[in-house]
Design a protein that fits this description.
Radius of gyration of chain B: 15 Å
Largest interface: A-B, 31 and 26 residues
CATH class of chain B: Mainly Beta
Order of helices and strands of chain A: HHEEEHEHEEHHHEHHEEHEEHHEE
Largest sheet of chain B: 8 strands, antiparallel
Number of domains of chain B: 1
CATH topology of chain B: Pnp Oxidase, Chain A
Largest sheet of chain A: 6 strands, antiparallel
CATH architecture of chain B: Roll
Number of helices of chain A: 12
Distance between the termini of chain A: 124 Å
Helix content of chain B: 10-25%
Oligomer: heterodimer
Number of helices of chain B: 3
């Protein structure tokens, strides 16, 4: 009898030792990872493998009223994500009371309660009854242990095992489940905290990246905006310079027109008088030729010399006055004060007038070669176009240090008039070519030019929807090519 | 006043024998038998019955404390008969909480949370306990 008792005790001791070993293994395993899914698998799998808990489930508290299934073992159709309302059924009641519950003979208990329910329904007391929702786990369990997963006093979930056997779970098994549940609660909580920290870290990293991108975008925007402002500022300065230049041209034009008007009458009188004088001398000479009395006078060398001198002076006077009249006419035509609006203009006339006005710069040292093609009249602001021609021709003259040639060629290219002004001057350095249309850019030195001529020319051509480009080779000269639409609808 | 010690083998029958049948008798001798949802093992000499409705059973044991409980052992297909005497009622404490929790769990799962509400855990002293057909476990008396 005593031997049997000792054997029984030894057997129980061995079993307890094995259980402790398994519990130590579970604790060690689930505490060595922060992967929630791995913790669930370890807990549920080990409980089945070593203690025979075939059907188990872990639910976590989602909010104060709801538990959500996060892991299950031993079910054929137990979908994860299913929910249990706190306070409903065994699991919900355990969550509500925060106390372990072991129940047996669930089928008969349910049947008993259901019988009462049926009787109440037959008695018409349905208003006292509430709807029965789906319960997670086995459809026909007989035994169940549900234990709250607690961290200190805080509920984080419920661990439940169940069986179809009516007396499946003993006191010892209840203790085992309780121990494992406590260990699992700690491991799950650690993993949840780690996951939350990881999510927080990930969110922070995303926020940081977002901020970095925003900062980069802002930087780009600032750069872009700065560029826009610089461009606007440049355009403003160009427009301002052009306005100043236009104003100066207008003032100059008005001044020129006034001077021309004042000079025109006396120079006309001088020119007319010189012509009268020329004809009067011719009459005197004819009279002397016809008169026998004047033979001696006619042969007098002093008189002959006086007539020659007079003829020469008269010719010079006539040529000089004609030149003055031509200049005055060009000046009036160049300024075009009478036609400030869009008009059909003869570009050749504009070029000729401009050449007349800069004649003092070209004569004796620069040969101007004109190669005018057939050009229809061009719809433009003639005074502005003349200003552009004047700027280009003045530049060409200044580029030629001593003697040289300026070639002016025109032609029609479809809907465009093409004007090419080439000089044999010093040319432009390649590094300056990209900047010559920039305002304030000049290679002439501050005392020579403001650097606005080409910029204004560029803007004038651009305003006419045309284009201007430059080709240059240092030491060989520069070619400016203007393309102007013949009609503004082009 | 006899008191017996409950044998170990009856404890799982209580856990699994629900519903049990309880028979009482009024002061003027009219008997009553009904199903009861829970028989709770308190200790080796006491059991607790759930008091949910103020019905004939409750009225009878308040008049006449003697009662008889029949437990069905589903595993062995046998019955246990317990003669018990009403001792007192508990409306709080671990026994009450345990019984209340079990009732709430099953009632809420069957849509009857508002119907089954434990009013009290009625504690009974066991006077005799026998397997049907054989008297057993009368291991003590006083």
């Amino acid at each position: 009898m005593a031997t049997q008792s000792l054997e029984s005790l030894a057997e129980k001791l061995a079993q307890k030792t094995a259980e402790v070993e398994v519990l130590r293994h579970i604790a060690s395993s689930i505490n060595s990872t922060l992967d929630l899914d791995q913790i669930y698998r370890l807990v549920l799998g080990t409980m089945d493998e070593f203690f025979g808990f075939r059907h188990s489930i872990i639910l976590l508290l989602e909010d104060t009223d709801t538990l959500r299934i996060v892991a299950s073992h031993g079910y054929e159709d137990q979908p994860l994500g299913g929910t249990v309302i706190v306070g409903t059924g065994v699991i919900g009641t355990v969550a509500k009371r925060r106390r372990l519950m072991r129940v047996h003979n669930l089928g008969r208990q349910r049947a008993y309660f259901s019988t009462i329910r049926t009787q109440m329904e037959e008695a018409g007391r349905t208003s006292e009854l509430s709807e029965v929702g789906p319960v997670p786990g086995l459809a026909d369990p007989e035994s169940q242990i549900a234990i709250p997963l607690m961290i200190k006093d805080k509920l984080i979930g419920v661990f439940s095992v169940e069986s179809r056997e009516p007396r499946s779970f003993s006191d010892d098994q209840e203790t085992l489940v309780s121990i494992v549940a406590n260990q699992a609660a700690a491991a799950i909580q650690n993993a949840l905290l780690y996951r939350a920290a990881e999510e927080r870290r990930s969110e922070l990293a995303e926020a940081h990246e977002g901020l970095r991108q925003l900062s980069e975008t802002l930087e780009h925007r600032v750069h872009a905006r700065t560029r826009e402002l610089e461009e606007a500022n440049r355009e403003l300065r160009e427009t301002q310079a052009q306005l100043v230049q236009s104003s100066k041209m207008a003032s100059l034009g008005m001044l020129a027109a006034g001077i021309a008007h004042e000079i025109n009458t006396p120079i006309g009188a001088i020119h007319s008088n010189a012509d009268v004088e020329r004809r009067a001398i011719r009459v005197i000479r004819d009279v002397l030729e016809a008169s026998a009395l004047a033979k001696n006078l006619r042969d007098d060398p002093r008189l002959t010399r006086a007539f020659r001198i007079f003829d020469d002076m008269n010719r010079v006077t006539l040529e000089a006055t004609e030149r003055v009249i031509e200049v005055i006419q060009s000046l009036k035509s160049f300024a075009r004060l009478d036609a400030p609006d869009l008009e059909l203009a003869d570009l050749h006339e504009g070029l000729d007038n401009t050449l007349t006005l800069i004649n003092h710069l070209t004569k004796d040292r620069i040969k101007v070669v004109k190669d005018y093609g057939e050009l229809p009249k061009v719809q433009c602001y003639a005074s502005q176009i003349n200003q552009a021609f004047a700027n280009l021709l003045t530049n060409a003259v200044q580029a030629i240090k001593e003697t040289g040639t300026i070639n002016i060629a025109t032609r029609q290219d479809g809907a465009y008039a093409v004007i090419k002004i080439a000089d044999s001057g010093a040319g432009i350095k390649p590094e300056h070519l990209d900047r010559i249309f920039d305002p304030r850019f000049t290679t002439k030195g501050l005392r020579v030019g403001l650097g606005l001529g080409l910029s204004i020319t560029y803007r004038i051509i651009e305003n006419h929807h045309g284009s201007i480009n430059v080709q240059s080779e240092p030491g060989r000269g520069t070619i400016f090519t203007i393309r102007l639409p013949i009609s503004r609808s082009a | 006043m006899n008191t017996v010690v409950l044998p170990d083998e009856v404890k799982p029958v209580m856990q699994n024998g629900v519903p049990a049948i309880v028979a009482t008798c009024s002061a003027d001798g009219i008997p009553n038998a009904t199903l009861i949802s829970q028989v709770y093992y308190v200790d080796r000499t006491h059991i607790a019955l759930s008091f949910q409705f103020f019905n004939k059973t409750i009225r009878n044991v308040r008049e006449n404390p003697q009662a008889c409980v029949a437990l069905n052992d589903l595993q062995s297909n046998t019955k246990w008969i317990l003669d018990v005497q009403y001792d007192h009622s508990e409306t709080e404490g671990p026994i009450f909480d345990e019984m209340d929790m079990q009732i709430e769990a099953i009632a809420s799962a069957t849509g009857m949370s508002g119907i089954f509400k434990l009013r009290a855990a009625d504690i009974y002293r066991v006077e005799s306990c026998r397997k049907l057909g054989a008297t057993t476990a009368s291991s003590g008396s006083s």
